[in-house]
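## Example record

The block below lists the input lines for one assembly entry, exactly as stored, with component labels intact.
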Amino acid sequence: MAERPRLLYLAFFFPPSRASGVFRARATANYFAEQGWDVTVLRGPDRFFDEITGARDDAMTATVDPRIEVAEVEMDYFRWETDVRRYGRFRGNFPAAARNWFNWKQDHVFPDKYQGWGVNALREGLRRHRRRPFDLIVATGNPFASFGSAWALSKLTRRPFVVDYRDAWTLNQFENADMFPPEHPAWKWERRILGSAAASLHVNDALRGWHARKYPEAADRMQVVLNGWDPDVVSDEPPAADEDRPLSFSFVGTLTHVQPIGSLLDGYRIMTERDAHAGARLDFYGHIGFFANTEDELRAQLGLDEEIPGVTIRGPVPKPAIATAYAASDVLVFMTGGSKYVTTGKVFEYMATGKPIVSVHEKGCAAEELLRDYPLWFEPESLDPEHVAAAMADAGDAARKADPDTAAQAREYAQSFTRYAALRPFEQWSRDLVAKRKG
Amino acid sequence: MDTKRSAAGTAEREAAARREVAVVFKKGALPRLNEYVAEVAPRGVEVTVLVANGPGWRKAEKVDGRAQVLSIGRRENRQPGVWLYLMAVERAPRAVLKRLEQRLPGKAGRAAGRARRIHRKATGKLRTWVFWPVYRPLRPQALRRIAGRRVEALGLARADRVVILDEGAVPFGWMLANRFPGLEVTRTLDKKRHEDLPVTGPTEAPEARDPYIRI
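Predicted structure tokens for the full assembly:
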């Protein structure tokens, strides 16, 4: 029997973390394992998920393929530590010198506050490679310290590495502007990493194009691996139509300050005031913000700290149970900060349900490319609440009509966007790369 | 000593209202502290603040009057190095030149006045470019020693936690954390911690107490 190719996967946010990027990482590891790879994942420490982000979901761990070896890699908590007792002797006695040392490392070693994790991941990766060599290294960012570790591991082990950009590093995707000033070391590192990576993966073509323009020398090694939906968490069974119940418009996902929630709330209010869909509800499923300690502040910022008639914050739903939220919804609200660089993974899940989707985001969002061919997509002319209300009413009509043929078409269209479908070409490419190297 | 402190402390803590000790060695942290005191004091939380209002605190914001403020500023100013610098470079020449300006008649008096003004400007520059670059890195350790000898005055047995507001106070906080294993020493001012308490006290801040209690 031929030896299974070995993959080292550097993914800080990996189950039990429930951060938004976990699903792509989990699908990558699971898919490679299913395709016969021997996968080792180096992830962030539990303490970070428990105490710093407060974003942990143990149910997620059970969805990781048991053949995958997952190792927790420790990190230094310099930027996050608030318990003085946990400071080391050096920081406890010389806090300014410790800060200067940390900043120096940011400027001269690697510009990422997760650098400590990256160094430990490098060490752990090397240790495991010495025991049993890997064939390919894949790193997913953020945090981008994983890219630095993959680069160093590749240099030290002479194995190819791939960087997977879940988010852009040096581009502010929401403002279409550079994230760092020109002299910032992140630029130097990104050029260095892309210059020697076997491939870089991007979540949409707009982002691939931006990187290709910035780093033309690496453009021919850039690939698009779309996000997708997870068949184990979203049911693609036809929804049962219930003519009598009031319509439920649902947003499923994490609320952040970049989403145009004001337009949505006003649009919903206008729609219900006009009796377009009497008794229609607006439900929010999911967390408010990515960090538990900023939830109250963000809730107030978004205007959700007071009761709004018909609007319900239903709170987080564990990913494995997300199908129940979709089942309870008639129309899905796709709301994002929007930009030509932002797709979001949620749009794939939404399409998989075969339910009407109403968009609430600026024009030109990357997700529009995907939604354009979805037969139950309703796009307002603008973010003006009047337009949003009209689009919501139309989507509500479509949900009431519940045409089975259109819904079937919608689901069929979504079938081409599963996570695994998106990963298939990359896995094949990786297999070929490893085979070529082994001769 | 620690066991005794912890046993007595638990009983007292249960009976008494919530009490926190805040440590501020840099004046830049005062607005954040005052905002916190304004939030928690009306809910009955007792806040004791330890300040090191030595050199550089002349234009500092006053601490909210609802907090009890203990000061080690005078002790800081009396450290041999600091005292010698302030006396030799600032106070003594200033006093001499001021007297000369007042007592000498005519041209000599005016020259003394000019010299006093030049001296004032020069001491400002010296403070910025000589005194602080030398003293700043030493200050946290110096204050740790001074404050460490006066820990009893903070009444830590009755404190729920100690909040270290600025980096300069970290060595003192770290020393407390090591000396009192049961004591919470944190860098976070957490308003949410007291949100369960009803607002019972006045929300208007009384006039700030100054001078602070010297320890």
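Chain A has two domains: 6-227+419-438, 248-415. Chain A has a mean pLDDT of 89.
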